[in-house]
């Protein structure tokens, strides 16, 4: 080998270099944000290849998103100065699992061309099964069952392994049976759902040790990014692959850890819930997830309801170091596996368990070398200090040192605005300023806690003509529930809008299925009239069955009434009336699936957004302008995303709006998960801050406008937890401005005072909390509206929570 150090190694610090060059045996890189963990992984692949230790096809590298995988491939090419020949197995858990599954589909009763169902298909299928079992879909919504099944799959549980107690929570004890028949139906349809890509892969490995051996032999090196957020199924899958292949014919127990000789998965013991364990939170609502899947942008393959399972709990010590692990160490010597992660960035709802995952690494992979990286290469001094100080408020963490050799740079700014509209205006102006100063918009990101917050920014950007892209999910007005609501409004506005009418004719379900719609279409085509007019005509005939005819007539009467109302009520009120009287809001209120609350929140935000327009026509025109924009087509655009989607990414300029109690930390997370939930929210804040290279800008609005009434909000406690030395409090540049003269009266000035003075003395949070307490019910109401119910998924078992708060 050439004596000269290759370029990709020369740029690394000694610890990074050790992580790259320790090719034999298990390696864990446990290090904070921006320390170069992902870079280490990329260099490691380059090193393996250039040392001739493996061919590309013998390396398995798991990234957090498919986008990250593409990026890694690109960098790899640059490092090696050539395109990588052959295909490394680079992708998310699910994309790689899917690839293996296709190759051996027949062994799990599928064909290699099996379909991967989207959520809608999944729900439709589950509805059929509910019907067949005579289970009332109103009382036991299909979406809830989908959530449960997803949760089980993410915990690696096949139908026979779901603890009876859990299976019983759905459909009067029929949950387990439904899961089993769902799996059977999938096989008949030659289909798999998202969770199957991994679960069925695990089953394949367990039931066919020869196949497992084949992959164990193939993958000479395994690399995993964002290890702190792996779920149980992913963990089990990794463990299976991470062993050296045993000899053919060796007893199964020597190949599969914990294998008891029974045909499937290791033994389970029902164990009590780990104290302090939190339910999974989810960055995104359901339809966002659809698009995550479509775009291949799956958050570590753990998109929803992931939860440390009972099976896994039994395998894991209740608390690191407290209980001896019951999962045996690997039977065969472990492979060259390298995992990188940061306990302070575990944001997918696995409190403790993720820390366990990392702490247990040494046990799972005996002889593991643990490497810590302490130098942060991403952020300036002030940003790093602020982020480190904030996360130090968490109790359950390993704790680590982080230093930077970068300049202190600009202080983290905290800006209070009057309301979210002003916040959006201020941020819009600052971005324009950055642009004028020569910054590329690709170096600018806005990270929000809840997806409904995006609406304000999208509207603002359209007004400003500022190109933006939404990452990791649909744009606000493209969400399913928003499109449904808009379809009602469009049908009112223009009875000839067939597309809109067709979209909602049977949403919520009113017995007007495909056959009815087909018949209306035939009618409309023959007579060359709009669908709505066809419906009006058909209702007068006896072509429809009495039930369908009755409900179609009701719908027409409703629309006629709403159109008449349009003359006498405001368009905002009209929207509320329509969503209410059509049963659309109720549909989501009754829906006990995890994303329902977020959808209701988005609907409220939609109605709120209408207030800014004079009438329905004006609003709909604005929407068509927004929708017309081809998001992402521009070379240069501001990135808009949730904090969850921002993991692993970095930007020069990061805007963090909405740091208010109830919104961030999320009230619902606090209510449902208490202290553990708060710590996860804090990690999320830490992830947000550590995305920034040069500028981190925090915002809070002192007022939130909900249905036309103003409510006072409290700045987030996380602001209180920032070190004063690294933070600068600035004035909002958004027109009316913080402390400006827009005439909101003295109460506004109070806010300024308590904000300003409490920073160094008693804490603005406490000061404002006292104020808020005096507001009693009104404050409650605020939290229910603004803080509750945005898009994070609670546990599927919290189905009893009320969505209608
Ligand atoms: P996160 O925890 O947020 O995923 P990370 O630990 O994966 O962060 P990277 O994204 O790999 O960190 O690196 C952060 C930034 O620092 C990147 O821009 C990377 O190129 C740069 N960097 C990492 N190591 C070095 C180094 N030795 N010299 C110069 N730049 C480096
Ligand atoms: Mg990284």
Automatic annotation (TrEMBL):
Molecular function terms, GO-annotated: 3'-5' DNA helicase activity; ATP binding; ATP hydrolysis activity; DNA binding
Domain of life: Bacteria
Region spans: Disordered: 249-306, 755-805
EC category name: isomerase
Keyword Nucleotide-binding: yes
Record carries keyword Plastid: no
Binding residue positions for ATP: 31-38
Domain (UvrD-like helicase C-terminal): residue spans on this chain: 381-648
Catalyses which reaction(s): ATP + H2O = ADP + phosphate + H(+); Couples ATP hydrolysis with the unwinding of duplex DNA by translocating in the 3'-5' direction
Keywords on record: ATP-binding, DNA-binding, Helicase, Hydrolase, Isomerase, Nucleotide-binding
Single GO BP term: recombinational repair
EC number(s) per entry: 5.6.2.4
Sequence ranges assigned to domain UvrD-like helicase ATP-binding in this UniProt record: 10-380
Any single GO CC term annotated in Swiss-Prot or TrEMBL for this entry: DNA helicase complex
Task performed by this protein: Has both ATPase and helicase activities. Unwinds DNA duplexes with 3' to 5' polarity with respect to the bound strand and initiates unwinding most effectively when a single-stranded region is present. Involved in the post-incision events of nucleotide excision repair and methyl-directed mismatch repair.
Family that this chain belongs to: Belongs to the helicase family. UvrD subfamily.
Protein name in the entry: DNA 3'-5' helicase
């Amino acid at each position: 080998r050439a004596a000269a150090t290759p370029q990709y190694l020369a740029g690394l610090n000694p610890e990074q270099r050790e992580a790259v060059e320790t090719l034999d045996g298990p390696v864990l890189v446990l290090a904070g944000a921006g320390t170069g963990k992902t870079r280490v992984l990329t260099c490691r692949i380059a090193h393996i290849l250039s040392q001739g230790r493996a061919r590309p096809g013998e390396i398995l590298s798991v990234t957090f998103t498919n986008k990250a995988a593409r990026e890694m491939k690109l960098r790899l090419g640059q490092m090696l100065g050539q395109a990588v020949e052959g295909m490394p197995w680079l992708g998310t858990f699910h994309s790689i699992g899917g690839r293996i599954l296709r190759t051996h589909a027949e062994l799990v009763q599928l064909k290699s061309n099996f379909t991967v169902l989207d959520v809608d298909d999944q729900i439709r299928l589950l509805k059929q099964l509910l019907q067949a079992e005579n289970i009332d879909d109103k009382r036991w919504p299909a979406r809830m069952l989908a959530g449960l099944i997803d949760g089980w799959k993410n915990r690696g549980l096949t139908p026979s392994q779901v603890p009876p107690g859990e299976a019983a929570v759905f459909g009067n004890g029929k949950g387990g049976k439904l899961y089993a028949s769902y799996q059977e139906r999938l096989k008949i349809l030659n289909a798999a759902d998202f969770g199957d890509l991994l679960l069925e892969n695990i089953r394949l490995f367990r039931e066919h040790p020869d196949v497992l051996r084949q992959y164990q032999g193939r993958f000479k090196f395994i690399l995993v990014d964002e290890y702190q957020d792996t779920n149980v199924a992913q963990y089990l899958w990794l463990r299976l692959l991470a062993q050296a292949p045993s000899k053919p014919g060796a007893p199964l127990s020597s190949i599969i850890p914990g294998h008891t000789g029974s045909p499937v998965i290791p033994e389970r013991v029902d164990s009590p819930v780990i104290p302090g364990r939190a339910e999974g939170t989810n960055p995104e609502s359901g339809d966002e997830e659809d698009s995550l899947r479509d775009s291949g942008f799956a958050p570590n393959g753990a998109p929803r309801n992931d939860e440390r399972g009972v099976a896994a709990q039994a395998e894991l010590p209740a608390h690191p170091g407290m209980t001896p692990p019951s999962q045996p160490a690997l039977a065969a010597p472990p492979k060259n596996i390298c995992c990188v992660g940061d306990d302070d960035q575990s944001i997918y709802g696995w409190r403790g368990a993720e820390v366990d995952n990392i702490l247990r690494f040494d046990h799972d992979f005996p002889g593991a070398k643990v490497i810590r990286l302490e130098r942060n290469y991403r952020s300036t001094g002030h940003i790093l200090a602020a982020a480190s100080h904030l996360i130090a408020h968490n109790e359950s963490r390993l704790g680590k040192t982080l230093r930077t050799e970068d300049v202190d740079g600009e202080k983290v700014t905290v800006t209070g605005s009057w309301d979210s509209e002003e916040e959006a205006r201020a941020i819009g102006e600052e971005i324009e300023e950055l642009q004028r100063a020569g910054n590329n918009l690709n170096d600018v990101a806005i990270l929000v806690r809840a997806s409904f917050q995006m609406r304000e920014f999208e509207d603002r950007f359209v007004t400003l003509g500022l190109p933006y892209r939404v990452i990791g999910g649909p744009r606000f007005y493209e969400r399913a529930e928003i499109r449904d609501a808009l379809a009602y409004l469009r049908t009112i506005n223009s009875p000839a809008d067939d597309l809109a009418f067709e979209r909602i004719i049977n949403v919520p379900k009113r017995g007007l299925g495909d056959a009815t719609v087909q018949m209306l279409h035939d009618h409309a085509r023959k007579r060359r009239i709009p669908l709505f007019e066809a419906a009006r005509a058909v209702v007068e005939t006896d072509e429809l069955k009495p039930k369908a005819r009755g409900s179609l007539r009701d719908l027409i009467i409703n629309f006629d009434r709403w159109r008449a109302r349009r003359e006498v009520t405001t368009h905002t009120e009209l929207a509320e009336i329509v969503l209410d009287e059509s049963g659309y809001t109720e549909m989501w209120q009754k829906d006990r699936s995890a994303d329902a609350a977020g959808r209701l929140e988005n609907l409220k935000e939609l109605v709120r957004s209408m207030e800014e327009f004079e009438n329905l026509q004006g609003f709909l025109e604005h929407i068509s302008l927004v929708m017309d924009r081809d998001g992402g087509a521009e070379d240069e655009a501001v990135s808009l995303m949730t904090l969850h989607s921002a993991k692993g990414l970095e930007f020069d300029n990061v805007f963090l709006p909405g740091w208010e109690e109830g919104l961030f930390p999320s009230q619902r997370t606090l209510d449902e998960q208490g202290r553990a939930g708060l710590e996860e929210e804090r990690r999320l804040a830490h992830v947000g801050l550590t995305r920034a290279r040069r500028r981190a800008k925090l915002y809070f609005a002192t007022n939130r406008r909900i249905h036309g009434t103003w409510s006072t909000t409290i700045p987030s406690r996380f602001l209180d937890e920032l070190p004063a030395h690294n933070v600068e409090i600035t004035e909002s540049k958004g027109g009316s401005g913080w402390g400006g003269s827009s005439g909101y009266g003295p109460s506004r000035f109070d806010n300024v005072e308590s904000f300003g003075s409490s920073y160094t003395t008693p804490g603005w949070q406490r000061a404002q909390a006292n104020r808020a307490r005096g507001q009693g019910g009104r404050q409650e109401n605020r939290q229910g509206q603004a803080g509750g119910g945005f898009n994070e998924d609670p546990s599927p078992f919290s189905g009893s929570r009320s969505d209608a708060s």
